[in-house]
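Database export, one record per block. Field names are fixed; values are copied verbatim from the stored entry.
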Amino acid sequence: MVDRTRQRRRIRIGLALGLVAGTAWAALEERPERGPAQAATVAALPPPAIITVAPGEPRPSTPTDAGAIAAAPEPERWAIPAGAIDPRRATLIDGRLGQVLEDGTLIGFTLDPHLQAVAQRTLERYAVTWGAIVAVRPKTGEILAFAEHAEGRPDLSRLPLHAGAPAASIFKVVSAAALLEYGQLTPGSEICTHGGQQKLTLYHLKANERLDTRCETFAQALGSSNNVAFARWADDKLAPLQLQAMANRFLFGKRIPFPWAVGVSRARVPTGSRLGLARTAAGFENTTLSPLHAALITAAIANDGVMMAPQLVATADRADERVFEAEPAVLAEILTPAVAGDLREMLAASVSYGTGKKFFEKKGKPRLPVRAGGKSGSLSGSEDGVKRHYSWFVAFAPVEEPEIAVAALVVNGDEWTIKGAVAARDLLEAHYDRGAPDPAERDPLSP
């Protein structure tokens, strides 16, 4: 009897210790490595931003209210039927894009009819191997454009959610955030480099006073997508866990709530290789990204470091009764407003100084009536044994008070048809000039 009592006591103690240890481990696992200057915290991913409401009931305004309503007995609840909704089937209804489901429910999309049409025609006109354009309103997460096309492959759909494409130099945005916060760089920090446009080796990580004649500030290096500058700064000022932590804060490796499953963007920062860290920071390897995620990252920087949950369905009405109405929801607090502000100004350098300059100017004059920020990314690789050329561009405008963020990814074969920068730029132009001719009528490869 005494032995059994001792045995039960040991089991209870073991269970208690296991619970404590498990809780502590979970807390540590969810918390990324933090540098001394890091002030922002990563908000835990909430449930998918689709709160169902029983017909006739007021919509909950806080998570607490939502939980209380969810716990109460309800006669009937309506949820977004993800399998039935399809923006490609949307038609113009009372000035907005909507879809009538088989049961008569009218779905109202957040899509802007003009931007959606321009984005879709751009991809179709130039017969891209496959491509996607996503535009987001930064302060709310509303999706303004969700376009896709795969030439000769009508069976492929939801390409904006595909996360198999390399992030390429778009990942430099994440590296820049880490260098601002952990590496204590400022937009005016300077470096002199040479080479590194096509390849990056250990040779490039060592300064060479005789050859290093390309001198740029941190902002200019981001704008020109200077691989060696980012590689050398990462090698000198970042620990692998710090870059990984920043990637985690930008929701790499995380599920993004959406009516449909979103591919998980990947970022694996090597911990035992100087060159591996440097090449990852410069966007050469170890990262993938979906167009939707790219748009959300850009929108978060535009929104003072706060990433909003993406919204595609705005309303649902059935028999003159509103059964669903979306509300903005914070997905993650990624950066402090100060760091996000520095990044916005640095990304403006890409449009005024760097790789995006020729696409956003015509005869020396800006194409847009406002200042824009952006970042290009390009990388060649193989997908299913076929050579692919990935061309990215992310952008937002205006720099001072951003109201739209865009991500464009175009995948070309041996023959290029259009560049990501042109697709993103044309969508911004369409946003600001609704009466202009369709940008899709232009030469796709010219600035």
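Remark 1: Residues 11-70 have pLDDT under 50 and may be disordered.
Remark 2: Residues 2-30 form the longest helix (29 residues).
End of record.
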